[in-house]
Amino acid sequence: MKEHETNTKDGNISRKDFLSLTGKSVAAGAAGSLIATGILQSDVLAQTSKKAVSPPASIPAGVEEPIVLEAWKSDVDQQSGPTPTPLPPARRIRYAVVGLGHLALEEILPALSICKKSKLTALVSGSPDKMKKVAAQYGIKTENCYSYQTYDQLKSNKEVDVIYIVLPNALHKEYVIRGAKAGKHILCEKPMAISSRECEEMIEACNAAKVKLMIAYRIQYQPHNRKVRELVQNKTFGAVKYIEASNSQGSANPAHWRHKKALAGGGSLPDIGLYCLNTNRFILGEEPTEVFAYQYSTPGNPLFAEVEELISWQMKFPSGVIASSSSDYNVHESRHYRVLCEKGWLNMDKAYAYKGQKLQTAHAEGKMEKQEEIGIAETNQFAAEMDHFSDCTINNKRPFTPGEEGLKDHLLMEAIYESAREGKPVKIIRNAGQGTHGAEPEMD
Ligand code: NAD
């Protein structure tokens, strides 16, 4: 069933079904007015079509048929969502997480606990004390705990299918290549590396080892951003003309690797500006042909002795869209974008945050402007991206955000730095080809 087909006979959806599908993030009172617009209805229909997980078109030899549970709704609990369809624990894809820093401890390990197709079975860390505590907390066997020196021994560990690299950017290449040589599929944090050349080596190594490589672009698995992509590519508000995007935050510790060029590769651009760059490409579905940039770092501020503070750049797309983006390491947190279309606009607050996305639209209705907020149930972005990679591993699919997506972004970031340095626009001669996305993720 396609996303906009409905499973009701007359194509409409009952109020009871609506309430049970929208989940807690949409208040029942607001639902009536939103459904009248037809915008939220498409969300509801999209969710309706996903009540059960569709089996893959073909199941490779040795892979068991997926278990598909019937959707079940209680008469008394009208707010219940779609029936979850987790894989049995024994059939989930097993992850080794490499690097137990901020992101791994606060987001990735907790997300693995709520995944439906993925689970944590091994850890890699340079800190034995920390790893011992984390292993005890998550029930990881001592023999599945590795140091950076013993990392290659993962090759003989039959309890690991995927290695997730969550290290400083400059270490991604080494650990991706060593992981591929160990015969494991690789999920790698963004930015993919610190140069396009490194990205190419990582892709080559994974191809040579016949393992999958996915870059953890979590926004592309986030439902509000996916909804914007759908509305934009369907031209719901007419053609897009201009995008304004910003991802900015404060930073306080000049000793952190993010402020060391050799480990980070750059400053705010590869760390947070990358979200604007990558999300613009994702929602438009096209590749920029030219960029123009400025950058600035406050003189004497030790935070920016090696990497840039602020970078602002424009990208020109073949359809005529111009996207203007910025990232800054020295301002109060602000993560948003606005898409200006012929007959309306879309505005996303907290666009690149871990949660709290707020999607508003406006469009002309006669002489009136109609503004509304599109309510979509939140999901855990990390769990969604890991379950997508697990699905690709189980069903032998190309990941939606493969290594080539990371390479494209690095080629663009190199052009953005060149433009800022030279003070002139830079044409994008090479963009790692068109159509590098893999299989669309199944979203709940
Ligand atoms: P962090 O500094 O909190 O953790 C990095 C880990 O790497 C630490 O455990 C540290 O001990 C270890 N490490 C190993 N070798 C090191 C070395 N030579 N120097 C410094 N640390 C070393 O960083 P983080 O915020 O967890 O970021 C890790 C990766 O995740 C980065 O690539 C970052 O861009 C990415 N990230 C992604 C998101 C996202 O939303 N997808 C968010 C934050 C970070």
Automatic annotation (TrEMBL):
<dbReference type="InterPro" id="IPR052515">
    <property type="entry name" value="Gfo/Idh/MocA_Oxidoreductase"/>
</dbReference>
<protein>
    <submittedName>
        <fullName>Predicted dehydrogenase</fullName>
    </submittedName>
</protein>
<dbReference type="InterPro" id="IPR008354">
    <property type="entry name" value="Glc-Fru_OxRdtase_bac"/>
</dbReference>
<dbReference type="GO" id="GO:0000166">
    <property type="term" value="F:nucleotide binding"/>
</dbReference>
<dbReference type="Pfam" id="PF22725">
    <property type="entry name" value="GFO_IDH_MocA_C3"/>
</dbReference>
<dbReference type="InterPro" id="IPR000683">
    <property type="entry name" value="Gfo/Idh/MocA-like_OxRdtase_N"/>
</dbReference>
<dbReference type="InterPro" id="IPR006311">
    <property type="entry name" value="TAT_signal"/>
</dbReference>
<dbReference type="Pfam" id="PF01408">
    <property type="entry name" value="GFO_IDH_MocA"/>
</dbReference>
<dbReference type="InterPro" id="IPR055170">
    <property type="entry name" value="GFO_IDH_MocA-like_dom"/>
</dbReference>
<feature type="domain" description="GFO/IDH/MocA-like oxidoreductase">
    <location>
        <begin position="226"/>
        <end position="346"/>
    </location>
</feature>
<dbReference type="InterPro" id="IPR036291">
    <property type="entry name" value="NAD(P)-bd_dom_sf"/>
</dbReference>
<feature type="domain" description="Gfo/Idh/MocA-like oxidoreductase N-terminal">
    <location>
        <begin position="93"/>
        <end position="217"/>
    </location>
</feature>
